[in-house]
Amino acid sequence: MPKLTDALAGFAVTFGAMFRKKTTEFYPEQVKGKEGGPRISPRFHGRHQLNRHPDGLEKCVGCELCAWACPADAIYVEGADNDDLAGERFSPGERYGRVYQINYLRCIFCGLCIEACPTRALTMTHEFELADSSRENLIFTKAELLAPLLENMVEAPHPMYPGTTEQDYYAGKVTGADPSLFRPREEGSAQ
Q1: 66 annotated binding-site participant
Q2: Is 113 annotated as a binding residue?
Q3: How far is CA 178 from CA 86, 152, 174, 187, in A?
Q4: Across the chain, where does the E strand assignment appear?
Q5: Per the annotation, does 60 bind a ligand?
Q6: Do 109 and 117 meet the contact criterion of CB atoms below 8 Å apart?
Q7: Is 63 annotated as a binding residue?
Q8: Sign of the CA dihedral running 164, 165, 170, 171
Q9: DSSP secondary structure code for residue 137 in this structure
Q10: Kind of pairing, strands 48-50 and 122-124?
Q11: Which of 6, 88, 102, 119 is an S-S bond match for 83, by CB 3.0 to 4.6 Å?
Q12: Predicted structure pTM score
């Protein structure tokens, strides 16, 4: 039998909510995580990013664990072997992700792919504005997912830092690209 006090407790919650400050987000004038916009949660799951080592080599070793962990079947990975003789080294390991695609029409942003990645190659950013009028544009390729090159990085493929092993990369002993990989600056060029 319902008690009168239970009903009064329910009305008290409703009455208290009537006087709380309303939360209104003024999107797209104020975008979360950007200047002037509301703060974004540090653990927010946004667009994926394929990370690089400090010298520019890719962290992805093409193991396909992210694709296996994805419950929505949104990730497609094709691994390939690094070939030092042909000058085709993209990651410090034996293999790299030759083809990497994430289909954002399927992705549910659960983060299971991030947890499955053994090299921390895949992380999620705070970027959430992914809407597009074309379905093809929502299948992000490796070139779109790769982290931008920072200072002291050189675009892969290139050899590993001289005198280092794959374990040195994961131990954080490599802090930048081999200086011999940087092209000498030409007169009048922007780089």
Answers
A1: yes
A2: yes
A3: 19, 9, 9, 22
A4: 48-50, 75-81, 95-103, 122-124, 139-140
A5: yes
A6: no
A7: yes
A8: negative
A9: G
A10: antiparallel
A11: 88
A12: 0.79
CA 26 to chain centroid = 27
R_g of the chain, CA atoms, integer Å: 23
pLDDT value at residue 186: 52
Q: Are 117 and 66 in contact (CB under 8 A)?
A: yes
- What are the residues whose beta carbons fall under 8 Å from the beta carbon of 31, sequence distance 6 or more? 37, 129
Residue in 14, 17, 46, 53 with CA at minimum distance from that of residue 157: 53
* 167 annotated ligand-binding residue: no
The pLDDT tens digits for 11-25 are 999 999 999 988 888
What digits encode the pLDDT tens for the residues 60-113? 999 999 999 999 999 999 999 999 898 899 999 899 999 999 999 999 999 999
Which of the listed ranges 34-43, 66-75, 125-134 does the model predict with the highest average pLDDT?
A: 66-75
Burial 82-92 (b: 16+ CB within 10 A, else e): beeeeeebbbb
139/106 Cα distance (integer angstroms): 9
C-alpha 76, offset from chain centre: 15
- pLDDT, tens only, 148-179: 999 989 999 999 999 999 999 999 999 989 88
Residue 70 marked ligand-binding? yes
Residue 152 half-sphere exposure, CB side, CA atoms within 13 Å?
Answer: 9
Distance CA 189, CA 191 (A): 6
